[in-house]
Prior knowledge:
By secondary structure, the chain is mainly alpha-helical. The protein is built from seven helices and six strands.
Amino acid sequence: MIDTEYALLHSLRDILKEEYDRNYKIEELEFALGITGEAAIVQLEISNIKYAIELWNDKLNKYKETVCVFNGIEELLKQLSLNYKLGIVTSKTKEEFEEEVVHFGLNKYFGIIICADDTKKHKPNPEPLLKYMELANAKNNEIIYIGDSIYDMQCAKASNVDFVFAKWAIKDRT
Length: 174
């Protein structure tokens, strides 16, 4: 719903170069989209995870002006919320959710919100979606999970929930 790709990847690349003297192309860091920041730092084999996350969050401020709502998202949420109960299962922490989704006022469309801090395991593990289903008192055949990453799809599959791939985050890379 929120286009954070540029900000996330460029700020990550910046801290890797400045703090760890590692040079990456943006394309090499795309694996970090859709998973928790902690999971991305672990995959980069950085030992002091907390420190790296703090650096990354601080550097994100440099790119805040590039963060925006994808075109048509608010209209879509308005329409969907007329007939359906909407919820969120995100890899963002509550703080990140506040800064991004709440900042743009999109939180008003969602009844139940599961952030990374709400579960021990994270996407692609099914735990966050199972937690959502528990709180929503919903069975797996009563919900549809809409996501924009492979991790979302794997989480839905592991939860035996129907999945719809949202193309809003797909960029023409040609």
